[in-house]
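Recap from last week: sequence in, structure out.
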Amino acid sequence: MALLDASDPTHAAPALSALDLGDKRELRILREGQKNTVWAFGRTRRLFFVTGHARSGTNWIAALLMRHPSIYVDGEYYFQELKRGFDAFRHEPYHRAIREPVRTVAESCFQDTVRLCIAACAIHHPDADWVGDRTPRPLEVFLPGAPHFVITRDGRDVLVSLSILEIAVAGPVYQRFAKCPALARLREEFLKDKEFFKKNPDQLLTSETFTRAIAHDWAAQVRHDFDTIQKIHAGEIDASVFSITYEELHADPERHRARMYQFLGLDPAKALPLTVESETLPGFRGDNHSSDRRKGVVGDWHTYFTDTAKAWFKQAAGAELIRAGYESSNDW
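Predicted structure tokens:
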């Protein structure tokens, strides 16, 4: 893959030969103008990000955005993993990269990697003016000036949805507590009967360590995201942000997707309609506990929460539930 650093998009550059795209189809960093802009496959593209906690609706936001012909959003890239590596590279006092000019060069290289990786996916949508990443993660600005969509969902619904998925696929959160007897028992029961939690909803949140961990992680991300959004609004961080809750989007997807297009400077009238096939209408058909497209409803936590689970959640995330506006007190 050949790349060229140039501010002149007409300057000839080697092609992406591995993809056999022709002489004019390359990726190039543009050093002038907006920092979230890149030259990709014959034209400039602008880059954006969709973030939120896992099981909060980042996939849905992406699907809604892609109903507009000028938007393509792919993922998940998990650039935060790469960022940790670059930060470690520049952290230790005996690392040369802690001092200039290597420090600035390393940051520039990280940002260039983000730009080029996202822009490379524009090959799948040649007409896209905007190309994005939809990784579920805390809000962190990797490209100065880039627009960010941040979605927040009731942590109790997140807990239910993520618990079912993690137990079903033995995901990374499950693996953290796989030695917990209560959690191992739940997975055994699920593997024997994929309808186990539908038949026994009071059993889902019976592993205290697992339940508290997910609630704690959700609370930590809510705190971080809200604080970061405040800094963006105050001008302390160079970015723009569109924040929305899953519940708002669920109640009126047409209104809010129009606002999302306008946030990127696009005409909502050009967007395609929402359809069941594109998975852009609220909720999903059925309730398949083996699928990551399980249900998508609001308030599903009422079915699964016991008094014990409520107590665990309030202790781990009650303050953040109130801060996010889902409750006015812990008396729920």
